[in-house]
Amino acid sequence: MKNLFEIKCLSQSEAVIDIEGTIGIDRADDTQRRGVASYEAFSEALEQIKNLAVERITVNIRSTGGSVADALLIYDALCATDAQITTRCHGYTASAATIIAQAASEGCREIMSNALYLIHRSVGATEGNAVELQQSLDLLSKTDERLAEIYAQRSGRTSEEITALMNENGGNGRWLTPAEALEAGLVDQIIEAKAERRTIKARIVDAAERLISALRPTADEPMPRAVLDIEAAAVEARSSAAVERLRSGQATAEPTSVEATEDPSDREAEESANAASYSRDADALREAKF
Length: 290
Prior knowledge:
Elements: E1 5-9, E2 14-20, E3 22-23, E4 36-37, H1 39-52, E5 56-62, H2 68-79, E6 84-89, E7 92-94, H3 96-101, E8 109-112, E9 116-118, H4 130-155, H5 159-166, H6 178-183, E10 189-191, H7 193-215, H8 225-252, H9 273-289
Parallel strand pairs: 2-5, 3-4, 5-6, 6-8, 7-9, 8-10
Antiparallel strand pairs: 1-2
Helix pairs in contact: 1-2, 4-5
C-alpha cells in the first residue's frame, strides 16, 4: 500500500507536502482503503524536508480523518519545524485531518472555496469489563478536551465554545462551509481557485520584474558587464540569423530567364530607298573597276 505523502520542491526555499487518504491506518491492515497517511510515513517525509533546509512549507490536506494519535504527532512535528508552515484544506477535510490543519504558522491556515470542514467528538471502539470501558471513556473525554484546547488556542474562541461546536448532532459535529469555518476561527483565509491561479501568474510577473530591476543600472552606475555581454550576444545572434536567412534565400533562388520572342512579321524587312541607292552605286563602282 502506498503512503500518500508526496514532496515537491518548488525552489531551494519552498517545498510542498501533499497529505491524502486516511490518517494513521496501519499499512498491513489497510487492504480496502485507497490511501494511508501515518505519522511514520510523514516523519520520513518531514525529515527529507528538513534536510533541504527550506524556509516555507505548504501542506495540502485531502483527508476525512483517521487516527487522532497520528494526527497529534504530525501536528507536533510541523509545529517544531523552523520553516513557515501553510496548511491548505481541499475537498472534505474532517476529524483528525483538521488537527493537522491547525499546525500552520500564524495567519496561514487556508481552505479552498469549495471545501467543507468538520470537527466532532472523538470516536473509539472497545470491549472489556466495566473498568476497561470506563478507562476508554476517560481517554475519549481527555482526547476531546485536548482537541478543543488546540482549536481554541488557534481560533481565539473558548474551549467551551469549541466543545459546543463539536457536540452538535450528538457529538458528530456539523459540516462547515469555508465562510462558517472562517467565522469560527478554524481557518484564516479562503482561497478561490481562480485567485490561486492568478497568484501563480503574479508570482511569475514579480520574478520577471525583480530580474529586470536587478539588471537595470542606476543613474550613477555603468551598465553591468554581464548585461553588456548578454546584449552583445543577442545582437550577434540576430546578425547571424539574418545572414543565414540571406544565404538560404540565395541558395533557393533561380537565375532570371527571358522568354524567347518571335518577330511579329514573317516577311523580310523591305530595303529602304537610301540602302537601294547605296547598293546601286557600289555595283557601278565594281563594274567600272573591272
